[in-house]
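Table S2 (text version). Query chain:
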Amino acid sequence: MLAQGLMLALMLTAPGDSAMPTDAVPDGSSPAFLRTDDARFEGLPDYPFQPHYAEVAGLRVHYLDEGPREGPVMLLLHGEPSWSYLYRHMIPPLAAAGYRVIAPDLVGFGKSDKPIRREDYSYAAHVGWMRELLFERLALADITLFAQDWGGLIGLRLVGEHPERFARVALSNTFLPDGSGEMPEAFGRWREFSQAVPEFPSGRILQMATTRQLSDAEIAAYDAPFPEERHKTGARAFPMLVPITPDDPALPANRAAWAVLEQWSKPLLTLFSDSDPITAGLDRVFRERVPGAAGQPHRTIVGAHHFVQEDAAAELVKVLLAWAPGPDADRAGLRRAEGRFVPKRTPLGEPLDEEGVVLARERLEKAFEGDLEGSGDGEMLTAMTPVRGSAGYVALERVTGRLHGREGSFVLQHHGLMRRGEPSLVLVVVPDSGTGALAGIEGEMAIEIGAEGHRYRFDYSLPRDADGGSP
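Corresponding structure-token output:
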């Protein structure tokens, strides 16, 4: 599922046959497998977590289990060719907010066992392995799922088969193929590369699909599960398991999952990045087809590539905890303010009209009530187009008043777009703009417009008090 296949193919020597293991495999009820030496996982940067294991279909499957055991479950599913190391920056703050965070390594990846035979890997097998681990071994329920890449292809099948187990779903850079659309050309190049390259470069693949520069130690951590090419059978198999042909055996089960998702009324949130050419635009499919996606604070993660967890872990956590606060979110420094506001817009100067595209400047004033009592004052620039439902605006607004009893001010930056009727609005606190008792504030505000007028929901954090308590 990685668009960087073409770039890698140009950078790496890729002639010859795929380096598939050819080991003789004994007959038996469970597949022959390889187990990566634990010594390869020692001293990995930012990965202090204790390993947990469960036997699943004769294989040892690794998972992380962090946070209070009695807390609500946050399930983090990775994809190809990563492992639970991908979530190392997200797990601690989610656990601190009171979630029991479960992050498995898919079979063939990370610290989990790695079947040797190519035929032991199938889409159905991956779904079955995770089903047995999560539901039969760990007995998880009331799950909040965050899934990316193949984590979505597997996780959404589980949601479709066991919707009662899930409370809500958040998706990033993933999809659930049902045979109704064509795959991008870049995906075809990735598939060809994954089968032809003599040495499958897991760490370099992670780097090519990440905007920020990974350290040598981080790249080595992604290579750690695969000491030899024969350990990478599962990684090579995954691209060929994406169902893209009409007769693919996985399509009936995927379509059955979609039938459930199209009736799904629980919350579904999309957090796709803006720089992943494979999954770009597929977030809209979920927003249009899943009822539970309506009214959710969907977000495009700006400046992030396919492995959004590497590029924007802190932003993902902030959005997730604003959307689904854990029981200890307040102790983790997160609070929510809600109430109403009355806006007033006053034109400033004459609008500029060129072929029906109108630019205008306005003064923006607000009166807030509720958990935030005060006023807002700023300026906005708007752009209206002749296409119905397409427009945009940006604004800076200073909010002054009392927030949960603390007096001060802060500046909100607005970025709003309407794409042919589909709205996207982000209001975020400008870093270090807080004054008075609101100095150091960080947060984001969501706005809803309904029959009762304008409402706000402001999720924010403040520096902890000197005695270590919550704000």
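Notes on Table S2: The CA atoms of residues 359 and 383 lie 5 Å apart. Residues 1-27, 465-471 have pLDDT under 50 and may be disordered.
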